[in-house]
Amino acid sequence: QVQLVESGGGLVQFGGSLKLSCAASGTIFRLYTMGWYRQAPGKQRELVATMRSAGYTNYADSVKGRFTISRDNAKNTVYLQMNSLQPEDTAVYYCNADRERVYPPLTYWGQGTQVTVSS
Predict the structure, then answer these.
(1) Which pLDDT score is estimated for 2?
(2) What is the pLDDT of residue 29?
(3) Rounded distance, CA 20 to CA 2, Å?
(4) How far apart are CA 67 and CA 61, in angstroms?
């Protein structure tokens, strides 16, 4: 059973920083593209950033230059460093694991961690 456990969310002021962590268990971490998604109230879940096993990254335009995704395969953990936070970043942030090179797709989600940015 694959489990993803997020941590690091909280309340931060406009312009502040937070670092989210997602610890994975029950699988071979390095075979997965790891990602962060978020869902604000009344909105659809959206991609924030992903990182493939080879290290390639992808970011939403709204977070480029402010957020950085990284992973530590030895610790089975993916991180999201969030700087210059804005009220529009307020959302529940979800960790995602997407198995590479398999069909049908195999994907897992964490329970989410709340990030609230006050203005």
Answers:
(1) 85
(2) 87
(3) 19
(4) 10
On whether the CB atoms of residues 15 and 119 are closer than 8 A, the answer is no
Which token pair is 28?
A: 């071979």
Asked whether the beta carbons of 95 and 36 are under 8 A apart, the reply is yes
Q: Which residue has the tokens 């075979």?
A: 31
Looking at the DSSP assignment, which residues form a beta bridge with residue 21? 7, 79
Least confident of 75-79, 91-95, 99-103: 99-103
Instruction: Please check whether residue 37 is in contact with residue 45, taking contact to mean a CB–CB distance below 8 angstroms.
Output: yes
CB 64 within 8 A of CB 11: no
Residue 58 burial class via C-beta count within 10 angstroms: exposed 0-12, middle 13-18, buried 19 and up? middle
Whether the per-residue pLDDT at 1 is higher than 80: the answer is: no
CA distance 99 to 109: 12
Integer Cα distance of 63 and 66 in angstroms: 5
Tell me what pLDDT residue 32 has.
94
Continuous segment of H or E residues that includes residue 23: strand 18-25
